[in-house]
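ok new one. same drill as before - structure tokens go in, u give me an amino acid for every spot. 505 of them this time. try not to just spam alanines like last time pls lmao
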């Protein structure tokens, strides 16, 4: 009787775990990179902040090193996006951009190059190189003001109206070649969010930032001209298009931009029967980039739009880069973009977006928007604040506290371990409210698990006879922290993101 009672108690307390299943014989997309941009705070932080704070930010973003306890010092970004300015800073108030943080200097002024311009951003570009960031990309919101139709870096406000003087195309391609060569850029993205109007936002005539719309025909024409110049100069820099404002505009021909010929861009640029076909250009990256804004809620939209995009990408045999995202708007009531959040709510929401982009749209690259923000908004990985005061203002311009976020470390759950050249592979796990993806190289399999639920347990598979397992946790109490684990069974903390690294030795 005592033995039977002991057995009952043992079985009652036994924890049953689901087994993680990985099939490395199945391969999906090859991962290119994870990244973020230097807009707009970096021009201030890189130029004016104390060096120790600049170095701390650079370490958080770029470092692949670990501390004495084995915890990552940074998130190891593999792509750094540099905003090539149009010259609104030099124009001051006449730029018709009221906020100086949203203006940008231009390397070319009055026909002469000044490579000391954009000094703050160049500091972080140099830091990225110093830390061994794999790729550097330059992107433009507008052509230099000396080449625009209205002499400004903001547009007319009319959809599809490219604010560019076409007679200056040779000067434009010369400028792009010179900047790409000087900054040693791996990629150049000449047009950003061409579907928005980028015009005045009020009756005063002021706009919010540099930018211009452009339709598919003009974008194709200009890209051919840029390719011609880059080919003549034998530049290593590859052209990346088209930084589409929403992913719908990549694959759909029935949108609110159809009449202005600014949608269905995968087919427009990569279908050989299209008049705007660009797929045969020598210096064009065989990829198309788009932004995940306004398509992430509710969950049905998050999933369905990415499945449609993934199918179109596969049909055209190109890569897809999710090249910009932050939390905007009210997202069907799921999360609001306003108010800074250093905690897990934003981290978990964005983790789900990353997962959907990678597993449903088959994104091979994924980039956040602002690496550093001064705003009381969910747009930064790192925040700067002076005595608790937020804002793009003089108070935060010269110095401030450097605040990391759970979102920073959550992106690190991907970027620090899922490295360029790894392939997404097949994985499954039968646990409630868990999202899981896996990535392989010759000697590693990296598994990222987003657990929105309570604490759960899983058993690990044996992939190699000689195998070592590591686990890194981001949760309420941990920031991408190395965990002490059993090589056979692990515990997933509630509301967490875990990265499991299976190593062959």
């Amino acid at each position: 009787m005592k033995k039977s009672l002991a057995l009952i108690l043992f079985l009652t307390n036994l924890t049953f775990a689901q087994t993680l299943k990985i099939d490395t014989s199945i391969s999906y997309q090859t991962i290119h990179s994870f990244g973020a941009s230097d807009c707009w705070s970096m021009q201030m932080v890189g130029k004016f902040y104390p060096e120790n704070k600049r170095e701390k930010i650079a370490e958080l973003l770029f470092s692949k090193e670990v501390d004495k306890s084995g915890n990552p010092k940074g998130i190891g970004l593999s792509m750094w996006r540099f905003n090539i300015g149009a010259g609104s800073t030099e124009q001051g108030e006449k730029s018709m951009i009221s906020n100086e943080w949203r203006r940008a200097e231009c390397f070319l002024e009055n026909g002469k190059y000044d490579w000391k311009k954009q000094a703050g951003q160049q500091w972080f570009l140099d830091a990225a190189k110093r830390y061994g960031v794999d790729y550097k990309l330059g992107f433009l919101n507008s052509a230099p003001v000396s080449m625009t139709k209205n002499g400004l870096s903001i547009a007319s406000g009319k959809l599809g109206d490219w604010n560019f003087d076409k007679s200056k195309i040779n000067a434009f391609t010369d400028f792009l070649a010179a900047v790409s060569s000087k900054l040693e850029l791996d990629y150049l993205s000449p047009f950003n969010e061409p579907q928005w109007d980028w015009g005045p936002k009020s009756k005063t005539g002021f706009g919010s930032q540099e930018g211009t719309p452009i339709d598919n025909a003009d974008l194709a024409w200009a890209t051919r001209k840029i390719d011609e110049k880059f080919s003549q100069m034998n530049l290593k820099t590859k052209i990346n298009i088209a930084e589409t404002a929403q992913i719908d505009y990549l694959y759909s021909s029935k949108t609110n931009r159809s009449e202005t010929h600014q949608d269905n861009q995968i087919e427009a640029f990569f279908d050989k029967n299209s008049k705007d076909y660009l797929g045969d250009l020598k210096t064009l990256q065989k990829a198309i980039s788009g932004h995940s804004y306004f398509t992430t809620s509710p969950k049905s939209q998050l999933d369905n739009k990415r499945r449609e995009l993934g199918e179109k990408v596969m049909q055209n045999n190109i890569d897809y880069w999710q090249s910009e995202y932050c939390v905007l708007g009210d997202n069907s009531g799921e999360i609001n973009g306003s108010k800074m959040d250093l905690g897990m709510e934003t981290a978990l929401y964005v983790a789900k977006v990353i997962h959907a982009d990678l597993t449903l749209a088959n994104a091979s690259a994924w980039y956040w928007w602002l690496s550093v923000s001064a705003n009381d908004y969910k747009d930064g990985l790192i925040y700067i604040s002076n005595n608790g005061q937020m804002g793009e203002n003089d108070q935060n311009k010269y110095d401030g506290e450097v605040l990391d976020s759970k979102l920073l470390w959550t992106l690190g759950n991907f970027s620090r371990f899922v490295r360029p050249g790894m392939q997404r592979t097949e994985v499954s796990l039968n646990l409630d409210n868990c999202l899981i993806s896996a990535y392989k190289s010759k000697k590693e399999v990296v598994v990222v698990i987003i657990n929105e639920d309570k604490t759960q347990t899983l058993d690990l598979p044996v992939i190699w006879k000689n195998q070592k397992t590591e686990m890194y946790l981001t949760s309420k109490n941990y920031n991408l922290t190395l965990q002490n684990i059993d090589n056979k069974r692990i515990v997933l903390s509630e509301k967490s993101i875990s990265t499991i690294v299976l190593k062959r030795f």
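The chain has two domains: 14-25+427-504, 32-420. and btw The longest strand covers residues 363-373.
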